[in-house]
Amino acid sequence: MSFVAVVEDRVVGHVLLSATRLDAPRRIVDVLSLSPLGVVPEFQRQGIGTQLIAHALEAADSQGVPLVFLEGSPRYYGTRGFEGAGAVGFRSPSLRIPEAAFQVARLSAHEPWMTGTFVYSEAFWAFDCVGLRDAED
Hints:
The protein is an alpha+beta fold. It has helices at residues 48-62, 74-77, 122-126, and strands at residues 2-7, 10-23, 28-39, 67-71, 83-84, 90-91, 102-106, 116-119. The termini are far apart. The relative contact order is 0.20.
């Protein structure tokens, strides 16, 4: 799912939800990953990112998606429906993801047995988009 924010016929923000999975003890669960989220610099700090996140989570919830994961700032996303994923029973798909950055939003279809390892789809791995990389010298 992809959503944009428009101001006077200009796209000023975008959020993407991608199909991913949770390797839970009972079975594989279809979940989503929120990435990327972007707002044109001159339109930042006006609530556009917050509205995009809220819209994305509402859309996911309305489709029965139980969980949305992301890698990002806990200060920013923690006030927008996300919490530390490790602290509530989820394992990161990569050691390169800082623990604080690995976050989840539990939606209405989430059930207590839905814990386990978050698994990115192949495209995230193919384009090396998982976790942080050391700076090249």
